[in-house]
Amino acid sequence: MGGKHKVANRTKNNARPSNSGRSAELLGTSMPQFVGFSGVKDSAFGFSLSNPDEIETSLDPNIQVILKKIAKKDSTTKIKGLQEFAELVKESEVDIVKSILPVWPRFYNILATDTDNHVREATHNVHHQIVLKVKRNIAPYLKQLIAPWFTSQYDTYPPAASIASQAFMDAFPPNKIQEAIVFCQEEILNYLSDNLLVQTAQTLSNLKNVSAEEAEAKYERVLISCLQGYCLYLEKVSIEQIKNAIDLNNSIVSNSKFWKFSKSKVARVRASFFKIISVLCQKAPFLLEEKGSNVVNNVFNNLEEHDAVVLPQVWEAALLTVSNIKDWWTYINIEKLFLPKLWKILKQGGQGNASVIYPSLLPLISYLPPTIEETVPQFYSLFFENLWLGSKQKSTVASRSESVAVATAFVECLQYIILKKQSDLPFCKTLIKTHLLASIEWCLLEDSTNYKSLFNQIASLIQHWSRNLDSDGLKACLEFFLENVLDLFRDTLFNVKEIPCFDVESFAVKQLDFMQSLKCISKSKKQYKVKFCTDSESSSKQKPEVGNVINDKNYLDRLNIFAYNVSELYVQYTTEKKSNILIKHLYSLVINFDTECFFLAMSERLKSKNPDSTLADIYSNVLQPWLNTQELCCKHVVSLIFLLFEFLQTEDKSAILNTFLKVPSDECLSWCISEALSHPHNKNPLVKEWLRSERISKFIISITDLIIVDGCPPELGVLFKLSLVEDENGEILLHKEAVLSIVSKLTLAIENYTDHTITADTCTSQAAYISAIIYTENLLLTYKDTLLLALFRLSCNPEIDNEIVSQETMYEVTTSWQDALTLLTKNLSKEESLSLCSKLAGIIEDEFSKSDLSESKLNHFVKIIVMALIAVYKSVPLGLSEFFEIFLRNEAVHSSQGFIEELCTLTEFLNGNLPRPHKEIDPITTNVENIDVARYFAWIYLKIGVLSSSFGDAIDDEDDDDDDSGDEMERQVLILTVINQVEVYASQILHDLCVGETYLTTFNNVVHYDAILHYNVLTEMKVIEALKVCDKILKSNITIYLNDMSMKNGWYWIKAVYLYYSKIQPQDLCSVYEDFVRNIPDSEVEITLQATRIFKDHLTYDNVQNKFDAVGDIIVLRSLIRCEEIDVQIAEVFTKMVNIRIADIPKFLYNSSLISWQDCQVIVEIIRLCSCMMKSKFQCFNQKHWDFGIISLVSWASNCLKAKVLFDTYQYQSLLCAVVNLYVNTDAQMRHLKEQKIPCSYIDEWEEILVESTHNDLLQIWLYLADQLNRKQNITTFLPLIQEFTKIFSHVYCERVFKASESLPKWSKYLKQSCLLLTNSQPSLQLWGYKMLLAFVPGLVNIDAEAVSTNNPHKMGLIFEQFKEKLVETQDIVNSLLMEFKLGDDSCRVEPLTDSFTYTFAYLLLWDILLSLCEKSSTELRFQYADWLKNEDLLENLLNNLFRLMPAEVLQFSERKSKSLMEPFLRKPDISVTDTCDSEKIENLVCWIYSSTLAQLPAVVRHWWTSLDGKLSQIVEKVTQCYVSTHLVTQELNELLACQSKFKNMVLNVLPGAREIIAIYTVDEAQVELIITLPPNYPLGCVFVRCDKQIAGASLKQWLLQFKKCVVHQNGRIWDGLSLWNNNLDKKFDGVEECYICFAVLHPGTYQLPKLSCQTCKKKFHSACLYKWFRTSYKSSCPVCRNLF
């Protein structure tokens, strides 16, 4: 009652559980019923696919499995099984496949007609594979397979039909197909008969398995394939074989169901039926002998068929019926059945199928019955009327193919009838006038687009009559036609008022088309074939094409007379109507027909009025009045006048030309000029003289002005170009002054092309065109070189907007000046050619000085120079060197070379690379702007770019399609191989590369540093690539020249030698050195020492054989300090150094600054050697060496401090750099020994005695230098000193600075000076101050830490106060700089070496110092720092500015780019004095500072973030989450893992994937878990903390609040919060008495402390324990003292 009904267990797919009885029942009912031959008919095919148990057990098991799949009802299963079957057949052996053949026909016969298209396709694919595999072995089973296979070739599913056809072709060769069909024709015909005559949609399919729609579709498909198969059978089999099977064929054809297919609703069934009728009429008419009535009635009843698939078959059957069925008209009523249908079809224009129906009209009327002949006029009148009505139907007019079909049928039928009835001339004339002329009139007057097709057909008819003039009837028809057509033209033209909407011009156009059709042969369509032949066959067999103009003289004479009569009508109409509409068509008539005949006939007409008339009177009486009449004047009148020129006398021509100059209209004058410039008139001397007249010149110049202001019509543009052509004598047709004026105007336009943005492209193109005309062998510089220079300057400009001047036009410009330069240098004298190229080179220099040094521009200049050199090379190949020198001689650029080399020499000297013990370095007196330095190195790249270019580089760019531009080997020749003294250019480039290497090492914070670096790298790559492929002679010349220059100039030329032999021409550098120094004179000791310094990495003492003085030995030892086993050399050199010291100790210790250069350099080299030994050979350092070098260091440093006023002398700078290096190397070595705990007596002496004095002296020197350099405007020459002195910052002892000392300035002075340097315009000095501040960070933190710990604040407050002034100053400037940038939307990119960069960089460096202080401080101190920043409102400004300075790609968040952009947030950028300070450095620093701010002051950043609006808040959150959060979370977790051993009772479990920390605190056996979850946007989002087990009562909530406060509000780390929580728990449980029942502090179940105490013994118990005690003991006494509780 009320229970749920029991439900059977669910089974797969909700099927019922298996049951053997029901399975047997289903098997019994699932057998298909007998459905005839096409289904399962006899024992051979009596197999149901639904019963897989009948499959032969002898087959391969794999095949049985597949056949069972195929036997399934599900189509998908069948398809998969068939696909597997095809693969199995393809991969199996022939014998295995042969074993399948007995079974396969049963499957194939059923599956070939399956309802699923893909099943049939897969079935035929399997069958195809079987056929390919077994080949002839299929013969025994052919009769079982052939019937469905044969008809499946016409399956309605094309892929299935295609595969079946391919299988059939692969099975039977073409010559065997008929035999195979004959062999199996009984099976085929029985199959066809059964499917066509017996089967229905219901019997052909098992309706239990398929739907009614599927069954109907299958039946239609079988019908179509069987009907088409029957057609194929009739076509392939011979008549004799058809007769042999006449009974079977008769059984099909005689059946009434067969004839009902003509009325089938399926179009393809009907089409197949009529195709069978056509084939039967042609191949087996004997089968239709007694069925004429059926054939004729079925065919003619369907003449009105509309379906495009059926229609061709019906009309083909109709034609074959009337031609093969005897007395066919006796089977139907012609008047009631045939003619009404025919008239309807003709009236409707074939019902849109004219192209199919109308070609059959002519054969059809040729088989008309005799009864129609009795009413010929009426019949043909109706026929042509209906035919013409059909041509006007919309469907016919809209389709060209339909119109052509109608026109062709119309004229062909007319031609046939006239030819047949030519004896009845009145009847023929009636047809011509009533139908032919009417059709022409309709075409002329109506707006029809396809009238030409009718004209062509009529022309064919007229030409046919003209070829048969021997027939009187046809001749009369031709004459009648021409007379009446002319009358038609006249009546139509002069009776326009009677014709509504008459368009004279359209009428004339159609008239001309008609006459052109009469003149030309209408070509019939040809079947074109492709045939390949050899060149010889082509040349021998090729014949000139025959024109399509008729050559029949009689016909042409008739046609010319006819044309003249028409043209006379045009002249009459023009004169009477005062309209120029027909003049254009008159001109066309005159030139298309006999021109002379026209003028002679017109002259004869004039003579009839005036016997003295001549041809010139045609101009004066007819053409000149037209020319002077505004309504009639037009271009074609002028064209007619110039046509008349050919037949006039000289005097008449001159008179006519003079009248042209008086025409009032400029437009008319332009027509006259255009005709005069055309061929052959431009060869006439009279015309040439006329073209040089003043009015013509002014007119052409005015066109130039129109071109420039974009007011020139296209016609005048063409005329302008035509007027600037040469005649046969090479002279320009225009006057010279006119040409010069045109050139001047165009030159000015292209030089100021930006002022003519609309017409710049046109003007440039015109200028390029004119260039090719005025710079020729005949003219040379007749028209000056201004246009050439202007075009060249335009080509030199790579920034031309393609919207203003297109690429195609620029190509024209380039080729024009190249061609002109080649021609001029070839024909001018050498001096004139050099002068011209100097002007071109000046343009290059000018454009180069204006460029921004981008690589694309320099490559463009290289390309232009190379193209110019190639242009010169084509004309003077042997004199290219002088032209090359002109193009690469840039005085403005080379003026910077001396300054750059002097500066780099000083750099090499100060850093210790370049020894100058004897020869003093000259002071640098000049100064060069940074842009000029960059241009110098860019020009070097340009030079090597030109030298390493090949002729093919420019030629290929100039014309990729020019096959005649020169031999391929010549195209690959480098320019440097065809000029003289190339070794000078190559060696100078190597020298400049070495200078550039030094410059880039030191001066990396100058403007355009990136450009200099880029071009230096590219130059090196190009020069190495170019010189490696040079020949031996050139390499030898380079070697000789480099050696000579090295002997003279030393250092950088020696480095060039080293570069050449190390990278370009690799050789043993030891041998190179020995050969080099062997040739150095003894007097040039410094050259040898410099070579030793340069080759030092490859030398040993065995290679250095020269004898040197003491300082020379010192330099050699320093150079070879890396060598092993040089103790002897070290001892010898130290002995010499000791002797030098003993000789004059004060001088040695630099007690006096008034020592010579040579003496000072001795000290410097000694210090440098000591420094190198300290760094590389410390193991060789003994006590004597220590005492000599390091103790002297104290004096050297002290004396440098005393002589600090000499800081701007190279002598003092070299000494100071050497002292700094010795101090740095010594301190580094001592620190290393101390870190490695290597026992050494020097360490204590250094730390306790020596370092303090040297350290303090060097810091005071820094203080002085910082002050002095901060005041200088230009410190370029001091940058080497600054870089060398920077090394000291890593060895500053801040504790010594902050220790009170009278000898050392207070630390505040250093702080103040460093802050001043931060805003210096030179990045190197900014970094000087930053590095010093960074070194002082630990000491500054200690000051504040002591104040906090002793609760005794410093009198100046926190250290942050010391930075406040400079921070506020830079912040205000940065705020004003960024105030226009919208936060989160706009990003500011600060360009280097600008005031904006200086203050932004200083601002960020200051913040990095402040954040470093936060990082080094304790939690309590960091809280005070954060509070100070918050009170001063500085941090909020910082964060806002950071997001305005952050790179745009960072703000535009993209997961794909996030990894590549994450690096700046994770790692602090390398901020070194030797690094380049650019915009990218600023952006990286911004990212790092934001990341550092989040790490050090998360609470402050979180507070700022929560105050932002929604959109900006999302941007900040995305940036933080994408780039910073993951790193900070990982950092927090790693810190916890590293420090968890410090907890006694707490264990930490870190889950990085979930960003969780589980802190487990254990007391006795009880545990409490604190789960901390970091949000994805940590630290912006708050940390989530929860504690699942409550212990310690209400205190736990207080501790959790303390944890959150520490982490969320006090910038504490997770570690700080956990330490606080752990300490609270430790204090809570420290000393707590355990429960005396469970003996635990915490209850294992309730996690409570013992709270209930006994009043007697005072022992405490857990309440749960006490309750259990009372309950189990049944007492209420204390468990300890037994007193009542």
How would you describe this protein?
This protein is mainly α. Among the domains are: 221 residues, Alpha Horseshoe (Leucine-rich Repeat Variant), CATH 1.25.10; 150 residues, no CATH class; 138 residues; 205 residues, no CATH class; 98 residues, Ubiquitin Conjugating Enzyme (Roll); 47 residues, Herpes Virus-1 (2-Layer Sandwich), CATH 3.30.40. 65% of the residues lie in helices and 2% in strands. The strands form 2 sheets. It has a 4-stranded antiparallel beta sheet with strand order 1-2-3-4. The protein has a two-stranded antiparallel sheet with strand order 5-6. α6 runs parallel beside α8 and α46 packs antiparallel against α47. The N terminus is likely disordered. InterPro entries: ARM-like (IPR011989), ARM-type_fold (IPR016024), LTN1/Rkr1 (IPR039795), LTN1_E3_ligase_6th (IPR054477), Ltn1_N (IPR054476), LTN1_UBC (IPR054478), RING-CH-C4HC3_LTN1 (IPR039804), Znf_RING/FYVE/PHD (IPR013083). GO terms for molecular function: ribosomal large subunit binding; ubiquitin protein ligase activity; zinc ion binding. One of its GO terms (biological process) is ribosome-associated ubiquitin-dependent protein catabolic process.
Low-confidence blocks of residues:
1-48, 523-548, 954-970
Category by helix and strand content: mainly alpha
What is the mean predicted local confidence, pLDDT? 81
- How many individual β-strands? 6
> How would you sum up the global shape?
extended
Strand content: under 5%
Query: Compute the gyration radius: what is it?
Result: 55 Å
**CATH 2nd-level architecture of the domain at 33-253:** Alpha Horseshoe
Share in helix: 55-70%
List the total number of helices: 82
Strand count, sense and closure of the main sheet?
4 strands, antiparallel
CATH class of the domain at 33-253: Mainly Alpha
Distance between the termini: 57 Å
**CATH fold-level assignment of the domain at 33-253:** Leucine-rich Repeat Variant
